[in-house]
Here is the input.
Amino acid sequence: MSGTAPGDRFPGFDAAAQARHWDPVTAGVVLARLRIPEEMRFFSPAEEAAAIALCDCLLGQDGDQHGGQEDSEQKIPVAAMIDARLAEMQTDGWRYADLPEDGQAWRDTLRYLDQDADEMCGRPFARCRTADQRAIIQTVQDRAGKQWHDLDAGHVWSLWTRYACTAFYAHPHAWNEIGFPGPAYPRGYKHPGLDAREPFEIADVIPARDPVREGY
Here is the structure.
């Protein structure tokens, strides 16, 4: 995401505008994601601050990339969506045997991030510079297969990215960035095929650039 503002690739595209073509139950579920409450029900204030900073770094929504009012309005409340899941105990239904239950694992690992940040920067993780936050979480990713605060670092990384990516790509604002118009049912598609588009879809204005390879 870094280097490309929401809507740059598919200008004017709004996935939520297609809600009238979805069945009522699906529309209700998807549109509710636009109204996720900001108040946390699971995380403590300290955990909330660390979770927001962590998710913003993981998904390129940190302050280095999102500084304007328009960007802040498009910012996806990933940490709030994770908090809502954990408050309702809506886990993935499985966990690594060497990690606690997901809710406790989140609490523990956010606390460990604050500990690492305090040792490195003398302040909580959320108050560190973005570059330092990235360095701290990069250490966790780089230690895959090794221990981090007596936990398997790879399993911790999986926990964070699994929840963060699930929340992010469930939100219609993320769909706007990738040109995804939402559920096909019941309308369906009539123009299947490579580079074929429906009338309600918008062409990628910078198709020659690969966001994964180029890191934006």
